[in-house]
Task: structure prediction
Amino acid sequence: MKHVQRVKLAGHALYRVLYLLILAGLILAIPEHSLHAQSSSEKKLDPATEAAYRRLTAAIDPAALDRHVRALSAIPSRVAGYPGSRQAAEYVEQQFRKAGLTNVTTEQFEVTVPVSDGLRIKDSMLLVDMLTRGDASPLVRHILSRLTPETLQKLNDCVQPLREFQQADEVFQRENAKYLKELEAHPTTPGTLPLIKPNSLLTADQAHQKAQAALREKLAVLEPPLIDELNWLCHNGPLYTPERFIGVTLSSDARQMLAKSPTGGEQLALNRQLLADAFPGAIAILATWMDIDGTRYRLYPLWPNQVQTSKLPSPEKGGLQAPLIDVGPGKLANFNGKTVDGSIVMVDFNSAQEWLNAPRLGAKAVLFVEPESTQRGEAEGKFISIPLAIPRFWIAREDADAIRSRFQLASDGNYLVPKVRLISEVFWQKRPARNVVGWVEGTDPKFKDQVIVIESYYDSMSVVPDLAPGAESACGVATQLELARLYAGEKPRRSIMFLSTGAHHLALKGIRAYMEQHFSEHEVPPVKTRFVMWLGNQATPVGKGLVTIILGLIALSVLRGIGRARLFGKIAGGVAGVALIFCIVGFWTLSPQEEQPRKRWYVFTGLDLSSKTPRVGMFYKGMYYDYRQDIQRKFADFARVQRENAEQIVKTALGGDPKELFADGVNPISGKDWRNFIPGKVALDHEPVTMAGAMGVGFVTTDDARPYVDTPFDTPDKVSIYNLSRQARLLAALYYDMVNDNNDPESQEELALPVTDPSTFSRMTLTGGFAKLVGRVVEFDPRRSFIPDKEIPGGLAVVENNNKTYMGVRGPMVEQVDDKGAFEFAGVAPLTAYGYNRPTHLAAYHINAETGDIDYAPDLGVSGARDYPLEQYITTGYKEATIVAFKCT
Result:
């Protein structure tokens, strides 16, 4: 018995030793830098850093900032997908190259946006046929020569499917004509069966449908870039030459404009009319105007009520014809004595919420008269968050005065109102948008693969999207361009990536699209891949020895169990034992550093600057996603370092009180919460980056309500270049520390940048994620299926938001579905981003192209929202959902 007890005690001791060995192996597996404390004392300012602070702050050129703001805001509208957006992207790309950045590229993505100006494709099949015929006219050859190689390739990709469809359609029409002829010869009488369709017709029908589906798929890819190219062509000089338009029958409007030798806006209108004349039935001109006794006045549609645009019945149907009344401030007393029901009401833009009295009393449309000035609050009150059909338009003040002079005062004191006609063509369309990227390569071999991202946006927004100068919105990109110029001449240790996004104001679509396109480059590797990489990095004999001991003990346990097992167990155990032996042998052959060196984001910084105050703050949160606050500790040390650096920069190079120029929006200094620095709700581009798991922060101008943002009055004369240059100078020096400070815990140099690991993206983590939501918009048709599966092509899928706007950033995500009803939303917040069961609300609509009315809306019935909920809980990184809509007109 004593012998047995000694054996058991020895066995227990052996197990204790094994446990210690395993623990030692685990400790050795932990990266050494993670064992270091990341606290650091205030950095000592050396002479070289002090000189750099003075050099960089002095190098910021206020005149250059002003030039960039004026150049961008001179574009009438930079709303993503509009021609001005492309013009702005080309300006940014040109400035990146001029500054000396390397690897400058422009990446396209698609946005769904309401469009009311320019050209639209009425019949893409007809247009492709006209552009690809063998006997190309001089105009067609000119257009093809101006298309980008990518668009030209997409056009060529449509040629073969088009020819196949035309052949299939010819066969189908011939077979169908035969069948109809047979029906006429053998009419169906009561009590008899109709003539059965022959196999030849059924076969032709199937081939016809298949060819049509293949063609539609190619056309859906072609349409957004092609209409973008045609609109861009209209913006780039005169299109007309007599030789180019041989054989084209010009409309009377085109001939009248040609006779006037047009320039500027008139030249643009002429180019559009010329293309519409050259491709009749395939291209149409979007226009919004009001006619009174033959005099036309230009109108500008307002931003949609969620998805409901200000589209009116088509011009072919006469548009909207109704009497016009003027109610000034729009108070109820102003409606006295006027027939409101069925009328068009002209009201002052600065009417707060009083304008809603007009639709409440039965008005068909509302015209807002341009004021002397206005503010963001007034603009935000002119569209609502539900899809209510109230056509709303902006009219120039001088036009409104001219119209008011036409009202005649009758003898009884009432006004005699003219009858007017409104035409408004507004469509949700997929249009290309662009992100521009440029690089400054790092010079230190140790740090050059660590990337500091400096991001901003160049697009604009307005409640009147055709009038969106966006001067305040250009402050961030103007500063970015100055930083690019400065750092292209520096020699930073780390690499700098300059990213200028093009759809910030459409629910942060620009940065979300960039992240989705490059997600795999920053994604957390699968567990299996990380384990293999960890094994391969056990380069020391001790590390490999420990892992070998553990695997060997497991193998011995398996082999010992074989002796006590039956035949089946012995076979299974033998296979497992041999596999483990091969694992041990293979493990020793693994080579370290299997992952190839590549550039990785370490810090993402988004510039969201304005000019009403000189102070910039650093924030880890925004209000678009408003994700959980317990991730604050991840950013606390980094924010502390930036605050300390800012204090030194101000004392050394700028002068004044550091608290007046920099705010820590991460650490609650003096108990002040981050929200208290921003007087309003703001959406920031770093939010989806941070939510995905990266180190993302935003540099935001504090204490600025941005009163002119989202209005047509956001013009350069209201921008304080002095305040903007104060922010730019501080940021120029802050980035010097960020791109040069040491972050290697193993170095003898001070750990001045407390970010030691690269940023990674995840679809879903314990505290956030960058989820993808995909699905289809369908209709339930009981004659077709027991489940809803009938697609609604051209519909609109919506991820709703608690707020309709965030200082110009639209809250709802809107995507136009394809011909199969499919949609995709990248960058949806998973449940873990909030820490509680917060649902994502979905909706789907379809707008009638002729009337502008919503003809499909969310189905809340038994076969709709009950079985296919509109409230989706994003519990995985990849979520599928079906949205059921019903025909409501």
